[in-house]
Each structure stands twice: as C-alpha cells, then as structure tokens.
Amino acid sequence: xxxxxxxxxxxxxxxxxxxxxxxxxxxxxxxxxxxxxxxxxxxxxxxxxxxxxxxxxxxxxxxxxxxxxxxxxxxxxxxxxxxxxxxxxxxxxxxxxxxxxxxxxxxxxxxxxxxxxxxxxxxxxxxxxxxxxxxxxxxxxxxxxxxxxxxxxxxxxxxxxxxxxxxxxxxxxxxxxxxxxxxxxxxxxxxxx
Length: 193
Prior knowledge:
Number of helices: 9
CATH superfamily: P-loop containing nucleotide triphosphate hydrolases
Mean pLDDT: 93
Strand order of the largest sheet: 3-2-6-7-1-8
Shape: globular
Number of strands: 8
Largest sheet: 6 strands, parallel
CATH architecture: 3-Layer(aba) Sandwich
Low-confidence stretches: none
Helix content: 40-55%
CATH topology: Rossmann fold
C-alpha cells in the first residue's frame, strides 16, 4: 500500500490559490518530490507568479521534468465519456503519467482542479467519481494530492450535501487564512455535522 495524502482546499481568489499552491509545491520541492500541476490557465499564471516570488527556478524544473504543468480543461476532456470520467481513460491519461513521474521512486506532489471545472458546471457526480479515481490511484503510487475548489460553489446552504461528499473523498480538509468565504463555508459544514 502506497503512503499517500489526498487534501482539499476551498479558494476564494486566484491569488489565494496561487499562494497556497505555491507553498504546497515548495514543500514538495524541499522533500524531493516530482511536481504535477493540472490547472486552468489563469491559475497556472497565479501559481507561477507565486512560485517566482519564492525564487523557484520554474523553467529549469520544467526542462528537467521535475515540474509538469497541464491544462485542466484539456486533460478533463480526455477523461470524460458521456459526461463521466472512466477508469480506463483515467488510467491511460492520468495514471500512466503519474506512474511515469514516480518511476524513479519519488513521491509525486499534485495540484489538480479538474474537479473544480466539473463543480463549476454543477457536475458534482462526475467530480466525486474523479475524486474516487484519484483515491484508487493513490493506493498504488505514493502521491500527495491537493484538490482545489472555488468556495463559491458551496456558498448556498443547498450545497451542504455536495460539500460533505467532496470532503468525504479526502484524507484532510485545509483552510487558507485569506479564503474568508471558504473558511466560513467549511465552518458551517462542520457545525452541521
């Protein structure tokens, strides 16, 4: 059984996302992890800006293969069949990539927001299925996975059940200090359970 960690965080802004993800990735660099970022373009920009503020040599990491950045929408498109991610497609597109990145024995540290793309489209069943596929992968490959969701998806009380499902798919739920809405939503969720 691989030692993995699957974490979720709700973000209020692209800037808070960039700062938190950069800190997450910097921690991985210090541990010798290989880094994979699967994010939308605007968030890739926020992440790379925050990494540059930490003096991370982004270009050198990209060239060496120690950092891989992919577009979340493009990757998600490859995973979906009739609106749902499938095991075979996930294994071929994501699993093979992660196994390749881990082939030298390193842990792979991943930030992903394909689930947030689905949540934005109100496709929560597909997002939960994708979270389950990540969990299955993490049973065989040591990964540290941070999933990012926009806080706004869960701001209405009618979204409480969806938030419970999302949180249940993860080992841990973390909060960013600058994500006021995300913290409020998670505190509401905690009070209701």
